[in-house]
Amino acid sequence: MLPKEEKLDPRVKRTRGLILRSFEDLLAEKGFESISVQDVTDKAEINRATFYAHFPDKYALLDYSISQMFMNEIEKRTLNVCSYSTDNLRNLILAVVEFISRLHSDCAQPHQQFEALTEGTIKNILFELLSHWLKQTGTKISTDIPATVATWAIYGLASHYSHLKKRPSPEKFVDEALPLVAVNLEQFA
Amino acid sequence: MLPKEEKLDPRVKRTRGLILRSFEDLLAEKGFESISVQDVTDKAEINRATFYAHFPDKYALLDYSISQMFMNEIEKRTLNVCSYSTDNLRNLILAVVEFISRLHSDCAQPHQQFEALTEGTIKNILFELLSHWLKQTGTKISTDIPATVATWAIYGLASHYSHLKKRPSPEKFVDEALPLVAVNLEQFA
DNA sequence: TATTCTAAACAACAGATGTTGCCTAATTTA
DNA sequence: TAAATTAGGCAACATCTGTTGTTTAGAATA
Hints:
The structure is a homodimer of 189-residue chains. With 189 residues, the first copy, chain A, is mainly alpha-helical. Chain A folds into two domains: 10-55, Arc Repressor Mutant, subunit A; 60-188, Tetracycline Repressor, domain 2, CATH 1.10.357. Chain A has eight helices and no strands. Chain A has helices spanning 10-29, 37-44, 48-54, 58-76, 86-106, 112-136, 144-163, 170-182. In chain A, helix 1 crosses helix 2. The mean pLDDT of chain A is 92. The interface between A and B is medium-sized, with 26 and 26 residues. The structure holds a DNA duplex (30 and 30 nucleotides).
């Protein structure tokens, strides 16, 4: 995670903003694999070497971009300031389902590699959030295993949904999916 | 998936074998990201252009290699010729746990990107297998959603296990993990 | 304001990528 | 066995990568 945007040298803030904006624009135009660092820096009108002063490579940029977007989604729904309940879980699943669907429809070519790379970023945030929720309940049991299963199940369901040819509404889908995830978490409710 | 090895031009068979063997040797020596196509073809003693006649890029080679290895694991345990039961499920989880652990310990540097890339390949095979199992039971219900949840949960658990600093025996871990996966599949037993 | 610090520009590097066209050698087939 | 087919070797290409050393210009601090 990059340091908070607060007290950054304005040049850094500007450059990162330009990189991020250019990258997200390019993602809407063409596939991640075919975006070069050159492409990003051309569009951002910065030197290519400057890019490498900010990100190790384009994969790190993808990571950063996705985690920013997903965190926004979570914070917007205030899911980061609550604890486990069936209702919050439903909202969380809905958030992931909608986020991934949007991501895949906004990107020109969300191919396998792209999805594989974004997945880890999102799952890490999900796992931290679920662990946090479960710890709030003051349980004595280690929550690692149920949090892992829930994280992967939620992401898997959202990914599955986003690949369906004929999708029901997100709400309808989540109603069907919810019990399969909740069953292992209910002991913490 | 590449065509069956049966009636292939012997030159093709030989070349693919050389590529595959060289690649797997290299994986034991260094990280996937730092393996170049040049490295593979040097070790295989074939021309670099020849590589591209067989695989689009090194990612496709990784895919092919991993799916071959995983399929072998499944076939060795005859998990491809049975249907759903709690016992078969336990064996399947055990297979995945052991396969991923071995994969990560055999590879010199199983970094995040490597894991992200192998994940999809393995999950696809898992999903097909579980769907096959569930269809065998002659259920009327669509099995897509439970098969998805089970696939992701199993892979997630195996991945989690392979990252633990202090691991219990695979059998002990699977005993703890099994019920979390089985609960959603029991209606098909 | 003057000084210090440091981000970004620029140029150049060795190496890797994916692709091409031409040539040869192995294999399949008729 | 002879002819047709096709895999692989080879060389060259434009492009991208990650890195380095130097210079310039903007920001922070005294």
